[in-house]
Amino acid sequence: MLVSRKNILIFLFLFTFVNIIFTSERNFTIDYDNDQFVLDGKPFSYISGEIHYFRIPSIYWEDRLFKIRNAGLNAVQVYVPWNYHELEQNKFDFNGEKDLVKFLKLANIQGLYVLLRIGPYICAEFENGGLPWFLNNIQNITLRSSDPKFLGPMTTWLTYLMKKIYPLLHKNGGSIIMIQIENEYGSYGECDNKYLQYLRDLTHKILGDDVQLYTTDGVSDKMLKCGAVEGVYPTIDFGTVDSKNDVEKYFKLQRKYAPRGPLVNSEFYTGWFESYEEETNFPNTTSIIKTLNWISELNASVSLYMMAGGTNFEYWSGKLFNGGHVITSYDYKSPISENGDVGETYLAIQNWTSNLKDWQWKQIGTSKNISRRNYGEVKVEPIANTIRLMKENCSPGSHPHTFEEMEEPYGFAIYRAQIKKVKTVAVKGIKDAGYIMISDRYYGKVTEKNHSLDINFEGDGGFDIIVENMGRQNYESIIDIKGILNNDITFDNKTIDSWESCSMSIKIVDRYIKRKGMKTIRNRSKDHSFEGPTILQGTLIVYDLHDTYILLSDFTKGVVVINGFNLGRYWNIKTSTQKLYIPKSYLKIGKNRVVIFELEGNTKCGNGCYVEFNEN
Prior knowledge:
- The protein is of the alpha+beta class.
- The strands form seven sheets. An eight-stranded parallel beta barrel has the order 4-5-6-7-8-9-10-11, surrounded by six helices. Strands 28-27-30-25-14-32-26-29 form an eight-stranded antiparallel beta sheet, covered by helices on one side.
- Helix 5 (148-165) packs parallel to helix 6 (193-207) and helix 9 packs parallel to helix 10 (344-354).
- This is Glyco_hydro_35 domain-containing protein.
- It comes from Rhabditophanes sp. KR3021.
């Protein structure tokens, strides 16, 4: 069929005209005269839920997003951790579990708008606050500043990220309505406004001047003064309070830096993170709903931090500024738990949104919990000579090399020297914990706080210290080097100038077991207990796939690998840290390899060492 040129031109004109109209309608702005957001020409406010795709297995992204939408929320707020996507400098990974684009598209399918927090720093109790480890190797760098040594790699990263998310902006048909730059910058000592201006200008250059930017800071004048920058909308964060007057007081502080515009609490805390060293107080459901009511009465937008909990798999847990260490579970006592369960707080929030006047985002279905299974006990047995097998990338030197010098980002390192007749070893430079063996016998551990150990060794022997990196500082963000620093290890107050430094990987052992199997240590005694760093293996038989937990109540401290995937760290000093969450996606039908790297020992093995796979 022939089509005239005139008809083609008419069609192209109409297509272009409709496209212009459609595009012009998709916008997100601030109406300063009426103190409100405007979405596609209409007044808009949001109730958002914080969710971290990097802490949730990808098979459950859709489940968690549905549950957030089904609680009556209309948006999600999402951090993007730089270090998670750039393990090696200039090598970016957005595949598989790191597929941010897939996650954002799923949010769009669920009808959720997105507030994307691109950093470069995120805090989030995440390793190094989301900054990559390799920045620590740059001499005299000032992080989170206008220092060119920082701006260079940061610009490369953010340029790559923003080009990737550009098609997903609301104006382009996607779900992203706002971009947060930096994170609680006012809590950081630099107060470098040129840096914030640079971030603002870079973001507008790549994403467009029409993209709405915002910052988030704590409720103090100093924090907002250092965290705000012209041309970027300043918001605040706070948790449950005792009265509506408190809410008004906090928003009055926001008004000092945003005289007109919508009121926004970008982090309303529904729970809190846990550290190994301290007890945690969690807000109760009643106080959460009361405070949300007061926020709503002021027509403020709010983001619930967290709405969906998650897990710090592998070595992604951060270190606190007070020296504490964040646990593997990032359940946060969230309305949606680490394993996807919904409970009292979730139902209360769902009920609260359903009763909000003129709120159109109501419950759309039923939020079901994920099934879990008891798989029972599994015997795990020590395997011979595996500590040395874990060693890789060894290098000699006059001093112990740091993790950064060895280009080993996370996990463990082992240092070896020869000693003779030593009474006391002191490791003042330890970051974070060291496990000492001499001639394959375990003598004990040292830490930053307890860095001296009496060993009373009389002979000649090989001295080994396995150093555990428990995560870099995530708050305020300092240069947090790991290993043994400044050759600060002495033997009876004397140093040694001949060392072997090696990185370590439990995954090497796991791959070796998968390939060749591994002989267990034959223990002829009745008591199978052991001391010191030891690798154990076992086999979990699975006939149907469900989520589960591994319970290690008789073990002390270490990491667990299932089928080659590192579940994270356990440490038997709290009930909540004796177990690790296992999503079903890391299991398979049939035999599942269980590898445990225990650091301190198990004195309760009796007739054998066992772990339990439990639904709770």
